Amino acid sequence: MVKANIWRGLMAVGMKLHHFAGPKPPRPDFKIVIPSRLSPRGGTFKLVFYVPDSYHTAPDDYRFPVVVNFHGGGFTLGTGTDDARWASTIVKTVDAVLVSVEYRLAPEYPFSTGVEDGTDAVIYLASHAEELRLDPQRMALSGFSAGGNFAFTVPLMLHDLQNGVGKRSLISTNNNYPASSRPSSSRLASSYPSSSYPSSSYPSSQSSSTLQLPRRPEAYSSNSSTTSILKLTDLEPTELEIHQKVPDLNLRAIVSFYPPTDFRISRQDKRETNPVPEMNLPPMLTKLFDESYMHPPNMIDLTDPYLSPAAGSDKLLKAAYPQDIILYTCEYDMLNAEGIAFGERLSGPQVGKTVHGGLVKEVPHAFDKKPNPIKFPVSADRCYAEACSELKRIFGGRVSVEDRRQLDKSKVVDRFEDDLQRDRVTGEGERLMDETDMGDGVGGNDNGRWIGQPSIHDKMPNQENRIP
């Protein structure tokens, strides 16, 4: 606990420096505290909202697409405002609402509380979409590092809930409506004609909620203090609160940046896949992450897809994931090889997803989160921009091919969706994984080389360990 708090303090300083560089990212527009219904621990956690300017001027019946985001930090560090730059790109490029989940952190809340909080957040937002002006038929998930893991594991838990698998169940809470918080209690006004906005996928009906949607004050700016957030009235009960019913929703995309996808592989084996080992995260930090999140170790099943999505069966991944997946891995990262392998598997014939993004050359883990107070990396800015262009297209907007390939101007990217590049990505994954004995050791020789050059998936832990 002490070590985690020390690292949290250090990360907070780093994020302040990261956010200091211009242009400064926005502050949250408002926050809502919601109850946990999936975790046996109960409790509450926060949802942090970033909304586009049009949120305050659009017609009352318009519903915005929503991106539910999970921050990084090894499941142990970080806050819901860490990805404010990503939020800024979302609201400006996609004209969508970004909701950052302040999931509860290990070691206080080890596996699988974070996954449960993330799933709770998606269900809550879809249930209260009418009042929050969200379109539950145009939802996406995004995440960074540990949050990128949640972007892949939350859909699995959600799918199991929707299909009554029985691994988790929604429970009733005594405090069904934690207070919501917004910067202003002014009633939303429509200053644009309805023709200025496309029809929402979600039909609007008159809500009986007393929640007052805010108009952003003229004096409000991206640098203003969040201490002006005020407590407002509660949201109206829905089928979620009354009958613990999972609402109708549609996940349209997953966006995941440099995620861990397979905890069946040891940290040491992962480290050895990095061609520049000195750029790996220090062992003392990754040890803290693993011991905090996967606790107690004798009770953790590393083949649980809620922990290791790569352990899920092809059938599960095909059923639970949306068609469009945007995945970025980093060349100088211990998580690169498993990320490539997972992306290749998702885009393969057995799962059949359309995987965008790819391997970003010559960058380390969290290359977009450098504590540089002078300048935000151009490559990170373009990576965000092209991912948001994909989201805009997926949500029904029009974008150019150039918009979807902006990162190419700064970095070489081996892309999953290109046939030629796919061969290059697979070759890169094979090269990285051939240099170490990853998995259970079967098939390796004394110097770590694999005999017979099996496919990249054969080098991962055995297929029989995948959970249907």
TrEMBL record:
Annotated Pfam families: Abhydrolase_3
Hydrolase listed as a keyword: yes
PANTHER family cross-referenced by the UniProt entry: ARYLACETAMIDE DEACETYLASE, PUTATIVE (AFU_ORTHOLOGUE AFUA_1G02580)-RELATED
Bias type Low complexity, positions: 177-209
Superkingdom of origin: Eukaryota
Species classification: Eukaryota, Fungi, Dikarya, Ascomycota, Pezizomycotina
Alphabetical keyword list: Hydrolase
InterPro entries the UniProt entry points to: AB_hydrolase_3 (IPR013094), AB_hydrolase_fold (IPR029058), Carboxylest/Gibb_receptor (IPR050466)
Protein's name according to its UniProt entry: AB hydrolase superfamily protein
GO MF: hydrolase activity
Keyword Nucleotide-binding: no
Organism listed in the record: Lachnellula arida
Region of interest (Disordered), residue spans: 173-227, 425-468
Residue ranges constituting the Alpha/beta hydrolase fold-3 domain according to the UniProt record: 67-172, 248-367
Ranges of Basic and acidic residues composition bias in the record: 425-434, 456-468
